[in-house]
């Protein structure tokens, strides 16, 4: 951020009075421009023990498989956002159920919320951001070709719980470890 | 938003190609400035069946009682944010436990996450944003002087669950009804 979105003047980076973090502050009108994490909301679309995944048609991670999810929009609830993303990415209709994973991804300032969502029918197919959309049983999941660690963790816990016959909310943090490789550490809370 | 925070030029409001919502787009450098909901994270600090509330020293709702909570910051997890807010507003240390309420507040583009948090000791007191900090049993809760509907709903369910002896995640939407009065409709999911 270089300029004030209110008045167009330059911003400077400093700790406002009474605060303890540097913020972007307009040198002219004095507005403080806070920057906060974004919420990504999505579904685990379920059908007879299988889960619907989308192969990404867009970067990042084009060609890799993911759960339908995207940024929560202003004016909508997390469940509405999960439903919308599932329609947009997989042309699929789910009944949005309970929250299943809540993960903080502090290295990219995102909060992931994934809800369980029984599919209402098998009439699905790729939206513009997907190359293909397919149901997978646990044995069929393309573990090496998943787009994001948060999806891998969610599916790992999901199928564990499916085998146990009882689902419970998994909440925690996924941190990216330093280095060039995609390596992560997951810490569950509770 | 009037100006581009990247280059300082004017922004216009229109629907970008491939999108379906109006966004602020820079007329010069073309950057799309998305605006998304913010996450508010906080605690229900617990001690022997009582809950710690803070009386707000700042607007909005100065003088009214609330749970310690505030905007999630970049680089922190939701649990870390809940812990930080509890220290800042109540000078209290909790062990952040399971998520208890997840409410969408679409009329103000906020997502509230409140975690149960057993107090580690009774050494608490008002931070700069609080006038006073006090433990309340269910009978003592100042129901008419709570700052926010999301706090009232959370405490209502909390004490219901306390009486039942079993806590479970409450997730849903709190909508503000049209009109001048503070009237709301809460819809629980699941
Ligand atoms: Zn300004
Ligand atoms: Zn620009």
TrEMBL record, chains A, B:
InterPro entries per UniProt: NUDIX_hydrolase-like_dom_sf (IPR015797), NUDIX_hydrolase_CS (IPR020084), NUDIX_hydrolase_dom (IPR000086), Nudix_N (IPR029401)
Gene3D superfamilies registered for this protein in UniProt: 2.20.70.10, Nucleoside Triphosphate Pyrophosphohydrolase
Domain Nudix hydrolase: 22-159
Keyword Hydrolase assigned: yes
Top-level taxon in the UniProt lineage: Bacteria
GO molecular-function terms, A-Z: hydrolase activity
Annotated signal sequence range: none
Regions crossing the membrane: none
Named cofactor requirement(s): Mg(2+)
Keywords, ordered alphabetically: Hydrolase
Name of protein: NUDIX domain-containing protein
Organism the protein comes from: Sedimenticola selenatireducens
């Amino acid at each position: 951020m270089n300029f004030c979105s209110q008045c167009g003047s330059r911003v400077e980076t400093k700790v406002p009075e009474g605060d303890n973090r540097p913020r972007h502050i307009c040198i002219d009108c004095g507005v403080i421009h806070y920057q906060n994490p974004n919420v990504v909301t999505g579904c685990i679309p379920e059908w007879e023990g299988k889960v619907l995944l989308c192969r990404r048609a867009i970067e990042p991670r084009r060609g890799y498989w993911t759960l339908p999810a995207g940024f929560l929009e202003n004016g909508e609830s997390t469940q509405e956002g999960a439903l919308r993303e599932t329609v947009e990415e997989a042309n699929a209709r789910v009944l949005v159920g309970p929250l299943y994973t809540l993960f903080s991804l502090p290295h990219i300032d995102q909060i992931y919320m994934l809800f369980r969502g029984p599919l209402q029918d098998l009439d699905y197919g790729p939206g513009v951001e997907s190359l293909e959309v397919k149901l997978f049983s646990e044995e069929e999941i393309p573990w090496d070709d998943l787009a994001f660690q948060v999806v891998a963790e969610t599916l790992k816990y999901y199928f564990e719980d499916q085998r146990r016959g009882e689902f419970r909310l998994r909440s925690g943090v996924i941190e990216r470890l330093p280095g060039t490789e995609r390596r992560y550490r997951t810490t569950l809370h509770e």
